[in-house]
Design a protein that fits this description.
Chain lengths: 326, 596
C-alpha cells in the first residue's frame, strides 16, 4: 500500500500542473483585462498602461524571448505563465487584485465559517440519509416505501433556492424561531447556523436517500443475504450488520469525494444567511477577473480533490478486505 | 471503531461551530442609553484605506472615519460645499490657479498605537501633501489617481519619478511637488495646471482625506483593515464579509448640527437638533446583506433601521399611488424618495461602421425606446425618462430643452429608419452587448429587441459577464452596449467628460464620440468660471450630444428608502457619504416599534 500511495502522490504533480495550465490558458483566452477594474473609475489610457506594467500584465504570456537575450534562462521564464506556476507551487498566492488583501489571509478567515456550515451538514446529513434509506429498504415494496420514494423525487425536483427562501421566510421571519440573518464568533455562532444547517440537511435528503436506497437494495439481493437468512439471521441483523457494511464502498466514494467541497463552502446558504465563508469567493473572483484568487482556489480545490481520491482508495481497502492496493 | 468515528465527527462539528470561542462578541457596544444605528450594506467592504477606496460600499463606511477639507452641507439643496477640515473656504488667486487653504487648528487624529503614546496627534497640512503624493505613487496603484491626474503642477512628474523606483516603500516622499505645498503646519497651497472650476469637489471626495504617514508606515498593507482618521467615528471591529462596527471618535473636532437647511426642513423636524455637538449617535453597526430577501426581512424585523426596497418586495411596500403600504405605515415606517445623480443609456460605438456612420439609425432607435414603459416594467416605476445628459438635480438640467430623439415616437422612428436603411443599403442588423447573463438582464435584452423589431430593426443580443463586457467596451469591440454613469459630484463636467474626444476608449469616453465643435466648447467649459455662462455652455454641449445621439439616453433612477420613525434627522444625500454623524435615534420609540 505504501508504494501505491507514493505513486499516487507523485501523480498529483502532473494532474495539478495540468489544471494550472488549463486555468491559465482559459483565463487568458476568455478573460478580460483586470487593469480596467484596478485602475479606477474614469482612468485614462496612460493610467491603464501604468497599471498593466506594475502588475506585469504587459509581460509575454508564455516565454520572454526579449529578456532571454539579456538575462538568459532567468529572463526567458520572466513571463506571466512561469510566474503563475511558480507562485502556485510555492503557495505564494499573493494578493487579490480586487481587495488588495493577502489571499492566504482571505482563505484562512473564510474557511472556518464555511466549514462550520458544511461539516455539520455532512455529519448530520449522512447518518440521517443512511438511516432513512435502511428503513425504506427494510420496508421495500410497501406503500411507505413508494410514498417515500415519491417524496424523495419531489424533494430532488425542488430548487435548492426555494428551500432557503421558504425556510428563511417561514421559520425565521414568520415563526421567529431563528435569526433571519447574521453570524457571530464563538458560542453565538450556533444560533445563526442551526437553520442553514437544517436546510442543508433537508434539501440534500431526497437525492441522498434515493442513492443509498438503491445501493442498499442492490446488496439486499446478493447471495450472502440469502445465505445469512437461511442460517437463521434476522432480517434486522442482516440489514444492519451485513448489508450496511457491504454497501460502504459507494457510500465512501460519495462521502470522501464530498469532503474537498466542504472547504469551498455553500454559495447560496452563505449568501442568504450572511455566513462569511468561502462559498462566494471564487464566483466573485471570476466576476471581477481576480486571477490570483481564482488561481489559488483552483489550485487548492485540485489538490484537495486529488487527495480525496487517494483517501477514497485507501478507505476501500480498509472496509473491504477483497480490495488490494498495488 | 464506529463509535470512535462518530465521536470524532461530533467533536469536529462542535469544534467548528464553536470555533473562536473565548474571543467574545466583537460589537459589545449596546448598553442602557447607548445610541446604536443599525445599517445594511449591499456588498462587501473591500478596504478602508481612503487612498484606495474605489467602490461606493467602502466609501459609505470609510467616509464616517475619514474627512476631507470640504464637505457637503447636510441639509441645503441644491448641493453646496462647506468647510470640513478647512477653517474656511479657500482663497483662490485671481488667475484661479492657486488655492490657499487654512486648516482648522483643533483637529486630531483618532488615538492609535501608531502615534507616540497612542495619542492621536494634531492634523497638519503635511498630512494632505503626503496623502496625495501617495495616491500619485504608481507603485501604490491607487484606484483614485484619475481624480488627481493632470491637475496639480508637478504631481504627474512625481508619478513619473515613482515609476523609476523598485518598490512602493522606496519612494522618497520628500521629493518636492511644485503645486502641492504645506506652507506651514496649518496652511496648504495647491497650484493647478489650469483653472478647474470643479476642483473643490475633489477636495470633498474621500480619497483626498489626509493620511498620517506614521499610520501608513506602522500598519503597512494592513492600513486598509484599520482606520486612523479624523472622522466622527472609528473602527471598533470588522468581521470580513459579515459586519463592521464603528464607534464614536473621542477626539472628534468640535462640530455642530447645522442650523440652516432648505425650505421645509424646519417643518419636517430636521432642525430640532440644530447646534448640538456631533455625532449624535454612539455607534454604527453595518451588516453586509447581499441578497434581497434577507435584507428585506431583516428590515421588517427591525434588525436594521433603513433599507432600499428590493424589486420583488416593491408591491408589498408601496401602493400604486407611490405611497407607503398601510402594513409598513402601521409598523412605524416612513418613506423618503431620493433622485439619483445618474444616467443609464445604450451607448453606440461611434467607430463602428454601421451605427457610428448612420445618425438616422441612432435617432430611430432612440425614438423607438419607450423609456417610461421600461421604467415601469423593470424598475417598478422608480425613475424618470432621461431626455438628455443631466439628471434633474443638476443645475445644468434644462427643463425647457426639447429633444425629439428621446421622445417615444414610433412614427418618427420609422421615418428615421427608412433613411437609415437607405444609407446602409438595406435591412440592418445590430448587436447589443449586455453585462450579465441572469434572468433580469435577459428580460431587459429581450425587451430592447422587441422594441426595435417594431421599426424593422433586427437586434442580436450578446450577454456576457461584467469583466468581459468592460474589456470589450474598452477595446471598442462592441457595437451597442448597455451602461450608465453615477456622478461623483454635482458638476456637469462629471458627465460631459464622457463625451470628450480626447477621452475615447480605453479612456472614459466609451462611445468613442468625437465632435470638433463639442471638443472645442468642452475645452472652454472645462476651465471657465462657475456661473450662469458656464451653465449655459453645459446646456449647449448637451444639445450637441443629444442631436448626434451617441447613445440612447434611457433613465435616471429614483430610490425609495423606507426607514423607521425612530431614526431622526433622516435626509438622504446624493454625494455626502459621511452623513451618519447627523442622524439621531429616539430610543423609546425604537423600543416601542421594534422591541429593542
Amino acid at each position: 500500500m505504501k508504494a501505491y500511495i507514493i505513486r499516487r502522490l507523485l501523480n498529483v504533480i502532473p494532474i495539478v500542473f495540468g489544471v494550472m495550465v488549463i486555468l491559465f490558458i482559459l483565463f487568458h483566452l476568455v478573460g478580460g483585462d483586470p487593469a480596467i477594474e484596478m485602475a479606477g473609475k474614469g482612468a485614462s489610457a496612460e493610467t491603464l498602461e501604468q497599471v498593466r506594467r506594475e502588475y506585469g500584465f504587459d509581460k509575454p504570456l508564455l516565454v520572454n524571448l526579449h529578456a532571454f537575450e539579456d538575462r538568459g534562462l532567468a529572463g526567458l521564464v520572466d513571463s506571466q505563465f512561469f510566474h503563475h506556476i511558480w507562485d502556485s507551487v510555492t503557495f505564494d498566492f499573493g494578493k487579490s487584485y480586487r481587495s488588495r488583501r493577502d489571499i492566504t489571509e482571505i482563505i484562512r478567515e473564510g474557511a472556518i465559517p464555511s466549514l462550520s456550515l458544511t461539516v455539520p451538514i455532512l455529519l448530520l446529513g449522512l447518518p440521517t440519509a443512511l438511516a432513512v434509506s435502511l428503513m425504506v429498504a427494510y420496508v421495500r415494496g410497501t406503500l411507505a416505501d413508494r410514498g417515500l420514494v415519491v417524496l424523495c423525487v419531489l424533494a430532488m425536483s425542488m430548487p435548492y433556492l426555494s428551500y432557503i427562501l421558504f425556510a428563511q421566510w417561514f421559520f425565521a421571519y414568520r415563526l421567529d424561531r431563528f435569526p433571519v440573518f447574521g453570524y457571530e464568533e464563538g458560542w453565538a455562532k450556533i444560533e445563526y447556523l442551526i437553520l442553514p444547517v437544517l436546510i442543508g440537511v433537508v434539501s440534500g435528503l431526497g437525492a441522498e436517500v434515493r442513492f443509498y436506497r438503491t445501493v442498499i437494495l442492490d446488496e439486499v439481493h446478493a447471495d450472502y443475504v440469502r445465505t445469512a437468512r437461511a442460517k437463521g439471521a434476522s432480517a434486522h441483523r442482516v440489514l444492519f450488520k451485513h448489508v450496511l457494511k457491504n454497501a460502504m464502498i459507494p457510500v465512501i466514494t460519495r462521502v470522501v469525494l464530498a469532503i474537498p467541497f466542504l472547504f469551498l463552502g455553500s454559495l447560496l446558504l452563505e449568501r442568504f444567511f450572511g455566513i462569511p465563508g468561502l462559498g462566494y469567493l471564487t464566483i466573485e473572483a471570476i466576476h471581477s477577473r481576480d486571477y490570483p484568487v481564482i488561481s489559488a482556489m483552483t489550485f487548492i480545490g485540485a489538490l484537495l480533490y486529488v487527495f480525496g481520491l487517494i483517501v477514497t482508495d485507501i478507505c476501500y481497502a480498509l472496509v473491504d478486505p477483497r480490495v488490494e492496493l498495488r | 471503531m464506529k463509535q470512535w468515528i462518530g465521536i470524532f465527527g461530533v467533536a469536529v462539528s462542535a469544534a467548528l461551530m464553536l470555533g473562536g470561542c473565548g474571543r467574545g462578541r466583537s460589537d459589545d457596544i449596546d448598553g442602557p442609553g447607548k445610541k446604536v444605528r443599525y445599517l445594511a450594506l449591499g456588498a462587501k467592504v473591500r478596504g478602508l484605506d481612503p487612498g484606495d477606496i474605489g467602490d461606493t460600499t467602502s466609501s459609505a463606511v470609510g467616509s464616517q472615519c475619514y474627512e476631507c477639507l470640504y464637505q457637503y452641507s447636510y441639509l441645503k439643496r441644491p448641493y453646496e460645499l462647506e468647510p470640513g477640515l478647512a477653517a474656511a473656504m479657500p482663497e483662490i488667486s485671481e488667475d484661479r490657479l492657486t488655492y490657499t487653504i487654512r486648516l482648522r487648528p483643533d483637529v486630531r487624529f483618532v488615538d492609535d498605537p501608531c502615534f507616540p503614546g497612542g495619542k492621536g496627534r494634531l492634523l497638519t497640512a503635511h498630512d494632505f501633501v503626503y496623502a496625495w503624493k501617495r495616491i500619485a505613487n504608481v507603485k501604490y496603484l491607487s484606484r483614485n489617481w484619475p481624480f488627481l491626474e493632470d491637475k496639480i503642477v508637478g504631481l504627474d512628474e512625481f508619478r513619473q519619478y515613482t515609476q523609476t523606483v523598485a518598490s512602493a516603500d522606496q519612494v522618497d516622499y520628500s521629493q518636492p511637488v511644485e503645486g502641492l505645498k504645506a506652507v506651514d503646519d496649518h496652511t496648504l497651497r495647491i497650484t493647478l495646471k489650469r483653472p478647474c472650476p470643479y476642483f473643490l469637489y475633489t477636495l470633498a471626495h474621500l480619497p483626498s482625506a489626509p493620511m498620517a504617514r506614521e499610520a501608513v508606515e506602522f500598519y503597512g498593507d494592513q492600513i486598509q483593515n484599520v482606520t486612523v482618521g479624523t472622522g466622527a467615528f472609528t473602527l471598533k471591529s470588522w468581521k470580513r464579509g459579515s459586519k463592521i462596527v464603528l464607534v464614536r471618535n473621542p477626539n472628534y473636532r468640535e462640530e455642530f448640527y447645522p442650523t440652516e437647511g432648505e425650505p421645509g426642513d424646519d417643518e419636517a423636524g430636521l432642525l430640532e437638533d440644530a447646534g448640538k455637538p456631533l455625532p449624535l449617535v454612539d455607534a454604527l453597526v453595518y451588516t453586509i446583506i447581499e441578497e434581497d430577501q434577507p435584507l428585506w426581512l431583516s428590515f421588517m424585523k427591525g434588525k436594521i433601521d433603513s433599507a432600499g426596497i428590493p424589486k420583488d418586495f416593491f408591491n408589498q411596500a408601496i401602493t400604486p399611488e407611490r405611497k407607503l403600504s398601510p402594513e409598513l405605515a402601521r409598523k412605524g415606517i416612513e418613506l423618503v424618495v431620493q433622485e439619483q445623480p445618474d444616467n443609464y443609456w445604450f451607448g453606440f460605438n461611434m467607430e463602428d461602421p454601421v451605427v457610428g456612420k448612420n445618425r438616422p439609425l441612432r435617432r430611430a432607435m432612440s425614438c423607438a425606446w419607450n423609456r417610461q414603459e421600461y421604467i415601469d416594467v423593470f424598475n417598478n416605476g422608480r425613475g424618470y425618462p432621461a431626455k438628455g445628459i443631466f439628471p434633474r438635480m443638476f443645475k445644468e438640467y434644462d427643463p425647457a430643452m426639447e429633444n425629439p430623439w428621446t421622445e417615444f415616437n414610433l412614427d418618427r422612428a420609422r421615418e428615421q429608419m427608412k433613411e437609415a436603411e437607405a444609407i446602409h443599403g438595406g435591412p440592418i442588423t445590430v448587436t447589443l452587448s449586455l453585462p450579465g447573463t441572469d434572468t433580469t438582464v435577459r428580460q431587459y435584452g429581450g425587451y430592447f429587441q422587441r422594441s426595435m423589431e417594431k421599426i424593422g430593426l433586427n437586434v442580436v443580443l450578446d450577454y456576457m459577464d461584467w469583466p468581459t463586457f468592460q474589456d470589450k467596451v474598452h477595446h471598442k469591440s462592441v457595437q451597442i452596449f448597455s451602461m450608465g454613469w453615477v456622478a461623483d459630484f454635482p458638476d456637469a463636467q462629471n458627465f460631459l467628460f464622457l463625451f470628450y474626444g480626447a477621452n475615447v476608449s480605453p479612456g472614459p469616453n466609451n462611445f468613442n464620440y468625437r465632435n470638433p465643435e463639442f471638443d472645442e466648447l468642452y475645452s472652454r467649459f472645462d476651465t471657465m468660471d462657475p456661473g450662469p455662462e458656464r451653465v449655459e455652455l453645459a446646456r449647449k454641449l448637451e444639445r450637441i450630444v443629444v442631436d448626434d445621439v451617441p447613445c440612447i439616453f434611457s433613465a435616471h433612477r429614483v430610490a425609495f428608502v423606507p426607514y423607521y420613525k425612530y431614526v431622526r434627522n433622516y435626509k438622504p444625500h446624493a454625494f455626502g457619504w459621511g452623513a451618519a454623524k447627523y442622524s439621531d435615534l429616539d430610543l423609546e420609540l425604537r423600543k416601542e416599534l421594534v422591541g429593542r
